Amino acid sequence: MLKGKHIILGITGGIAAYKSVSLLRLFVKSGAEVQVVITPAGKEFITPVTLSALSGKPVISEFFTANTGQWNSHVDIGLWADAMVIAPATASTIAKMAHGVADNMLVTTYLSAKAPVFIAPAMDLDMMAHPTTTRNLRQLRADGVRIIEPEEGELASHLVGKGRMAEPQEIHDTLLEFFNRRKSPLKGRKLLITAGPTYEKIDPVRFIGNYSSGKMGYAIADEAARRGMEVTLVSGPVAVSPEEAGVNVIKVESAREMLAACEKAFPTSDVAIMCAAVADYAPAHRSDRKIKREHDEVPVIELVKNPDIAATLGGAKHPGQRLVGFALETDNERSNAIEKLKRKNLDMIVLNSMNTPGAGFGVDTNDVTIILPDGTSTTSGCLPKKEVAAIILDSIESSYAG
Ligand code: C5P
Fold this sequence. Notes:
34% of the residues lie in helices and 23% in strands. It has 13 helices and 21 strands. Cytidine-5'-monophosphate (C5P) is lined by residues 194, 255, 274-276, 278, 306, 308-310, 325-327, 340. Cytidine-5'-monophosphate binds next to helix 11 and strand 16.
């Protein structure tokens, strides 16, 4: 329930504004107090009368109320709110928010709001895919705005693509989840997480690496930050970046560099999640010059064992710290994972099966089994990595509750 929560519902001039009525009803039914702020263009799509009747409050649109001359204080509304939701958020409002163009009451309120801000973009597919929109959304994300992604489907233009506003129920549930998570036992705790592959240099242009994309680790880092954790993400070379502004990324390349960064951060961490696909071996000698192709000779690269970061931290772990590892197995999956959990002194191991379609390296989904030292386990089923991240953090949360 959203009982007693103060929500600003911002409505802008898009066809999807008709769905804002249902969203308003859902918020009110959940017990929230809602103040609607609508842009002048928004009023072309939906009348303030409907909105004020449902919210039980006058709708705010202008800086001054025309007949009384009363000033509507964007500062007061901004401070009153526990959350601000802009649904639909048009390309124009998104652009104004990204650049601080405060030429209407809604964007002015956004600039004054101290509370978390959510936006549910809605626009035609070409506008959505335009580099300008992508750039503006990236900027808003970096500013800490939470984006409730639009869906694919038929649009008002009858074209089919990404740009349909998320359904009111989904927007409502996102807020509900957000408020519930603010009570998370993880809030204020420190997380150290590794992600991505490691690159072990052979010479200045070649390395030994693997196909890890870093997506799973970055999804966990983002979800942990959303739950209020202080996140240090030690990342190998990847193409992804965190969505949450608060994630502190330390970029490393080799397993040794990753170990050094982890050993520095671990003593003050409450939770450490070893999600990186660390190379097991590194070349014994790194050539300072590019190794030349000789005509007849095939070079032999001697390898040495890399340090096991998870096991090293497992050995240094003090009571109260939680250490979580991953296992990517092809056979005897469960028994191998349990053996690793014990050998590395872990508190939880997340088993990815290489045999499950849609799970593992590179893809956006995963299917994991979370195993605890007492042998109990839960399986996620094949889900987007973001949702798997939430399930993994739920399990860590339970360890604090129990
Ligand atoms: O032994 P294996 O590589 O299968 O173990 C996987 C787990 O150990 C993962 O959590 C991985 O991040 C971690 N690991 C590590 N350092 C290594 C190898 C694996 O931290 N050198």
